[in-house]
Fold this sequence. Notes:
The chain has 70 residues and is of the alpha+beta class. The chain has two helices and five strands; from the N terminus they run E-E-H-E-H-E-E. A three-stranded antiparallel beta sheet has the order 1-4-5, with no helix packed on it. A two-stranded antiparallel sheet has the order 2-3. The protein is globular. Zinc ion binds at residues 7, 9-10, 12, 59, 61-62, 64.
Amino acid sequence: MDDAQKCPECRNELxxxxxxxTRRISWxxxxxxxxxxxxxxxxxxxxxxxxxxxxxxxxxxxxVVIFKYK
Length: 70
Ligand SMILES: [Zn+2]
């Protein structure tokens, strides 16, 4: 990851940190899957979250978070 990546919205410098969750993190292109877990793609599973730290970048002004899920 490069130093000083910029926010895609406001171009300010992003703050480095880590994503964590007590559950897995999933992705879906359909809002229906949010309630069922079906049809969603697991980006980060629980085991990986426990191992720890997923580096992430955040813009506090735009509430944007960028992270790589693998
Ligand atoms: Zn921003």
